[in-house]
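Design request, tokens follow.
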């Protein structure tokens, strides 16, 4: 849900957001909640995928915002793992990804962590639109397929061949290269549903689109 992606509740002092605030002289008693600090992108970025009940299949045996840092093999926070990787990241997700309140920070935080694409079984309508608005590419597996069915575990490196000539609801072949060097491909649908959404994505999101329109109108 969007609350798993961007929680609104209290957060601990030893997490990425709490550590960042303490380093700046903020006492734990003054933390309040993620919801009250949604005007601070530094806090909200560190709170993305930090729900205390979320379970990351790439960090088995953990509960909360943890991930495996494949540069070290250690289990760290999702935020810290994201900082270790160069280039855009990919999220593999299940059905109705983004269900819940239409929390814009669920898309903003995803973007700020450097996620370039989310490949899911299906999306909640508003969250899918919010991802497009942030320049993050939503994609869906073919009917009846999922990351589990395809044998994807998140350790792969993904190649998504998408360019400025992308079309609404286009089907593309995604390549997933495993750690042993073998590669498998699978079909996925680009969930840019309209020409307007394609334009948003080409420009890097709604804000970039508006800025370009303003620049060209002068």
């Amino acid at each position: 849900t969007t609350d798993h992606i961007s929680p609104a509740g209290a957060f601990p002092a030893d997490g990425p957001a709490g550590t960042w605030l303490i380093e700046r002289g903020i006492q734990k008693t003054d933390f309040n909640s993620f919801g009250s600090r949604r005007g601070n992108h530094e806090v909200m970025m560190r709170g993305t995928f930090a729900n205390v009940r979320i379970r990351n299949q790439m960090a088995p045996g953990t509960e909360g915002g943890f991930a495996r840092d494949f540069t070290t093999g250690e289990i760290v926070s999702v935020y810290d793992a994201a900082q270790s990787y160069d280039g855009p990241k990919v999220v593999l997700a299940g059905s109705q990804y983004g269900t819940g309140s239409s929390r814009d920070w669920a898309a903003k935080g995803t973007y700020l962590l450097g996620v370039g694409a989310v490949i899911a079984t299906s999306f909640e309508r508003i969250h899918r639109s919010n991802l497009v608005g942030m320049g993050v590419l939503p994609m869906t597996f073919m009917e009846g397929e999922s990351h589990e069915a395809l044998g994807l575990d998140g350790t792969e490196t993904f190649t998504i061949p998408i360019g400025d000539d992308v079309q609404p609801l286009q089907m593309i072949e995604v390549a997933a290269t495993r750690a042993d060097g073998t590669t498998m491909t699978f079909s996925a649908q680009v969930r840019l549903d309209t020409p307007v959404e394609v334009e948003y994505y080409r420009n890097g999101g709604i804000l970039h689109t508006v800025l370009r329109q303003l620049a060209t109108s002068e």
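Comment from the thread starter after seeing the answer: thanks! The radius of gyration is 18 Å.
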